[in-house]
């Protein structure tokens, strides 16, 4: 695994966003842009004013391994969200739901404003952008917003939930172009 570069920004926002970009993608992904994108999504949707989010721009292998280990799904995916606030689902090797994952528990006396972590596969992002005929930056924006919405409790398991999530994505991404 390539070691990531870390940038933690604390300016101009009550939102604290830590960004890690794997070295192989540093020339293609600007950490400040990732932070700005995540902050816009949080400003649009987050209820609290003090929130920490970590973002990792990783390779396919890392995301595949995380998907296998933490979701029980041995398949590639574009974005994973690990919420410290909301419980998630664990699927077995056949993809069927096995169990709810327990909520992340902090040590006694610790207060954390962290929503969690979003991990994006940059190579998958590029493939999806090419397939859709769109700029990679647009696809990466979409995946970051999608991941943040998961951290904020949105899901798309049921058609009605998927519709709500897609509307939120459109609303947030629409603000990027104004």
Give the key terms.
single chain; 178 residues; Collagenase (Catalytic Domain); five-stranded mixed beta sheet; globular
Short note summarizing the structure:
The protein is of the alpha/beta class and 178 residues long. The protein has helices at residues 31-45, 60-71, 122-132, 136-151, 159-176, and strands at residues 4-9, 15-22, 51-58, 79-83, 89-91, 97-100, 114-121.
According to CATH, the fold-level topology is Collagenase (Catalytic Domain)
Q: Main beta sheet, described? A: 5 strands, mixed
Question: In order across it, which strands form the biggest sheet?
Answer: 1-2-3-7-4
Arithmetic mean of pLDDT:
81
Residue share in helices? 40-55%
Count of discrete alpha- or pi-helical segments spanning 4 or more residues: 5
- Class by helix and strand content? alpha/beta
- The unreliable regions are 1-12, 90-111
Oligomeric state of shown chains: single chain
> How do the helices and strands follow one another from N- to C-terminus?
EEHEHEEEEHHH
Give the N-terminus to C-terminus distance in angstroms: 38 Å
Count the domains: 1
- CATH classification class: Alpha Beta
Q: Strand portion, in percent?
A: 15-25%
Quantity of strands, as a count: 7
Question: What coarse outline follows from CA principal-axis ratios?
Answer: globular
The whole-angstrom Rg is: 16 Å
What does this structure look like?
This protein is α/β, with parallel strands linked by helices. It has a single domain, classed as Collagenase (Catalytic Domain) (3-Layer(aba) Sandwich), CATH 3.40.390.30. Helices cover 40% and strands 24% of the residues. It contains five helices and seven strands, in the order E-E-H-E-H-E-E-E-E-H-H-H. The chain has helices at 31-45, 60-71, 122-132, 136-151, 159-176; strands at 4-9, 15-22, 51-58, 79-83, 89-91, 97-100, 114-121. The strands form two sheets. Strands 1-2-3-7-4 form a five-stranded mixed beta sheet, with helices on both faces. Helix 1 (31-45) crosses helix 4, helix 1 (31-45) crosses helix 5 and helix 3 (122-132) crosses helix 4. The chain is globular and about 35 Å long. Mean pLDDT is 81; it is low at 1-12 and 90-111.
